[in-house]
């Protein structure tokens, strides 16, 4: 039997102000189809027919975000996933395909990654569940809003990604 070691994950506790995010959203379930659904959302958001990203007005920066919220255990572990951009709070220019949410101000555990988002973020979540899952180190999560922020840069295969997990 191969022993899998979990990597010690570094984070800092930060306070953030409320963020307004607009993007595509969908209900997700932790199953074998989740990564395929997430990939399809990102593709629709970034590329299909010029991507829904072109319809987001009043952006506060060029970053993109993935937000996880509305966690429930009713039908197994489910949550809503939104792929979008931070916008000005008063933004009203939203088409019917897009959803507007407010990430509340509060305390978050901030993890910083650098590299190819597809591999780094996948590896992050695998290690996160090993370190902070049922058996791992306790991180007092609130299961309210967790999000990934992809910092805009020149190289989409080598970028800064900050992941925020809501904590008590």
What does this structure look like?
Helices cover about 15% and strands about 40% of the residues. The chain is of the alpha+beta class and about 170 residues long. An 8-stranded antiparallel beta sheet has the order 1-6-8-7-3-4-2-5. Residues about 1-5 have low confidence and may be disordered.
Number of helical stretches of at least 4 residues:
2
Strand runs, count:
8
The percent range for strand residues is: 35-45%
Strand order of the largest sheet: 1-6-8-7-3-4-2-5
Structural class based on helices, strands and sheet pairing: alpha+beta
Helix content: 10-25%
| Unreliable residue runs | 1-6
Question: What's the gyration radius in Å?
Answer: 16 Å
Q: State the distance separating the first and last CA atoms.
A: 37 Å
Shape: globular
| Main sheet specs | 8 strands, antiparallel
What is the typical, i.e. mean, pLDDT? 88
SSE arrangement, N to C = EEHEEEEHEE
Short description:
The chain has 168 residues and is an alpha+beta fold. The chain has 2 helices and 8 strands.
Secondary-structure topology with pairs:
Layout: E1 12-16, E2 19-29, H1 34-46, E3 64-72, E4 78-87, E5 99-103, E6 106-115, H2 117-132, E7 145-150, E8 159-166
Antiparallel strand pairs: 1-6, 2-4, 2-5, 3-4, 3-7, 6-8, 7-8
Key features?
eight-stranded antiparallel β-sheet; disordered N terminus; 168 residues; single chain; alpha+beta; 2 helices
């Amino acid at each position: 039997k191969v022993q899998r070691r979990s990597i010690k994950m570094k984070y800092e506790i930060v306070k953030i102000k409320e963020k307004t995010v607009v993007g595509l959203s969908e209900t997700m379930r932790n199953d074998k189809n989740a990564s395929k659904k997430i990939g399809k959302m990102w593709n629709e958001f970034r590329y299909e027919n010029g991507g829904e990203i072109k319809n987001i007005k009043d952006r506060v920066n060029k970053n993109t975000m993935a937000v996880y919220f509305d966690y429930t255990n009713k039908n197994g572990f489910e949550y809503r996933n939104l792929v979008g951009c931070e916008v000005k709070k008063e933004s009203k220019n939203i088409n019917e395909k897009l959803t507007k949410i407010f990430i509340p101000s509060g305390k978050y555990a901030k993890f910083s990654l650098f590299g190819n988002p597809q591999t780094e973020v996948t590896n992050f979540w695998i290690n996160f569940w090993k370190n902070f899952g049922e058996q791992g180190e306790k991180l007092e999560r609130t299961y309210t809003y967790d999000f990934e922020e992809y910092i805009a840069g020149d190289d989409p295969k080598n970028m800064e990604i900050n992941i925020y997990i809501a904590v008590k």
